[in-house]
Automatic annotation (TrEMBL):
One of its GO terms (molecular function) is transmembrane transporter activity. It is a multi-pass membrane protein. This is Major facilitator superfamily (MFS) profile domain-containing protein. The chain crosses the membrane at residues 12-35, 47-66, 73-93, 99-120, 141-164, 170-187, 234-254, 260-280, 287-311, 317-338, 350-371, 377-396. GO terms for cellular component: plasma membrane. It comes from the Bacteria. The keyword Transmembrane helix applies. It comes from Paenibacillus nuruki. Gene3D superfamilies: MFS general substrate transporter like domains. It is found in: Cell membrane. Residues 222-427 form the Major facilitator superfamily (MFS) profile domain. Keywords: Cell membrane, Membrane, Transmembrane, Transmembrane helix, Transport.
Length: 427
């Protein structure tokens, strides 16, 4: 994996993503904790999370932009816009609900810009790294480092809230986003130089293709690909279930009386994702591993719901993170390998929309359920949905036969010798 950092472009990509991830961690904890503390309402926290995640419903509209223009430039624009909007939040903090509504509006707009960031990032990685085997390594490295950053970010977020207050915490997050944006601008110069022929080759097509025709092209690829078509509904259902968990965590932290407990739960989860992202390098990379991890992720959530004390909840969250990390690395790597580079932006944006559209719905449903039932009962429902998804996947033969194509298989496929294993199994 150290070989990856010998490429200065990947190093810039890694550093800028890390800075943005730190900012996102700090921003997330201070925002949701502020809302929960101000309102003492799980329902209002669910509305805040809905405002954050609802923007993902429209991310598919940004796919053609990612495929037409430099992904690093679009990522920097996204980060600069988010930084400015987050910087405005401290000036609106107050006790009145009107201030909270204004903050929710800013949060939604910032989230709209963040939807441009993720497809651009996902397109950049296969542009930097061509080998399927190294793409898996790179995703494992990025996912592992993301979780280290998340652990530090959430711990730092709680510490900064206690030391300097919520307002200055928002300013810190904004500054880190600006830093990341400037690094992406430097990366753009390197990517443009190394991909000039590719951009020129597709330029005439971009001039004659309509925006909606390009949207349809990305959609058609998704619905015709067996792997994406089978797995997508299950990603959506799981995100629906996980959003219920997300809106309950701030309430637990407030009940314990400190944002530190909020941080500890997330730190345990991200530590688990870090471990799972590393374990994938020594595990089989197939659909059976994904299905089993799905079931065990749901079981871990059930254990979290029934755990009576904090250390047991932390252990359950740690387990859940391990299986989440395994699923995330395999999912992202498979999509990047089977998707043509010229379609990557549209495909990633479309998948992001479909899988994450369930997040605001889950947050709203979870908020309404929390008004009527205890939080433990709401979490039981979430756990059952995830376990059910895993069991169904386990009984789908084609899912069990999913295989990650190797570098050798991809070269043979490119030469017209043999189809990659994942295509051969599914089509």
């Amino acid at each position: 994996m150290i070989q990856l950092f010998k490429d200065s472009r990947f190093t810039r990509f890694f550093i800028s993503r890390t800075s943005a991830n730190i900012a996102d961690s700090i921003y997330s904890i201070v925002l949701l904790y502020f809302v929960q503390k101000s309102t003492s309402s799980v329902s209002f926290t669910s509305f805040t999370f809905t405002a954050i995640s609802a923007a993902s419903i429209f991310s598919f509209l940004l796919g053609p932009l990612v495929d037409r223009y430099s992904p690093s430039l679009l990522a920097s624009i996204s980060l600069f816009a988010q930084a400015i909007l987050i910087m405005l939040v401290p000036f609106l903090i107050g006790d009145q609900y009107s201030s909270l509504i204004m903050i929710l509006v800013l949060v939604f707009v910032a989230s709209c810009f963040s939807m441009l960031f993720y497809p651009a990032n996902n397109k950049m990685l296969p542009m930097l790294i061509r080998s399927p085997d190294r793409i898996v390594q790179a995703n494992s490295m990025v996912a592992s480092s993301d979780q280290i950053v998340n652990i530090g970010g959430y711990l730092l977020g709680a510490s900064v809230i206690l030391l300097v207050g919520m307002e200055n915490t928002f300013f810190l997050a904004s500054g880190l986003l600006l830093l990341s944006g400037f690094i992406y601008i430097q990366l753009k110069r390197q990517l443009d130089k190394s991909n000039i022929s590719e951009v020129q080759e597709h330029e005439p097509q971009k001039q004659v293709s309509s925006y909606f025709a390009e949207l349809k092209e990305g959609y058609t690829f998704v619905i015709r690909n067996a792997f994406l078509k089978v797995m997508l509904p299950f990603y959506a259902l799981t995100n629906f279930a996980m959003s219920i968990l997300i809106i309950t965590v701030p309430a637990l932290a407030v009940s314990y009386g400190s944002p530190i407990y909020y941080s500890l739960l997330y730190i345990a989860f991200f530590a688990g994702i870090f471990a799972g992202s590393g374990l994938i390098n020594i595990m089989k990379k197939n659909g059976l591993v994904i299905a089993l991890s799905w079931i065990l992720m749901g079981v871990s959530l059930y254990l979290f719901a029934i755990a009576p004390v904090l250390w047991m909840k932390l252990s359950a969250v740690l387990m859940m993170g391990v299986f989440t990390g395994i699923i995330n690395v395999l999912q992202t790597s498979m999509i990047q390998i089977i998707t043509p580079t010229e379609l990557m932006g549209r495909v990633m944006a479309f998948l992001h929309t479909l899988s994450n559209a369930a997040l605001p719905l889950g947050a709203l449903v979870g908020g309404m359920l929390s008004l009527r039932f205890p939080l433990e009962s709401v979490l039981y429902i979430s756990a059952m949905i995830i376990v059910g998804c895993g069991i169904i996947l386990l009984f789908i033969r084609s899912v069990r036969q999913f295989q990650m194509p190797s570098e050798k298989e991809q070269k043979e496929s490119a030469a017209g010798i043999k189809e990659p294993a994942i295509v051969e199994k599914l089509i």
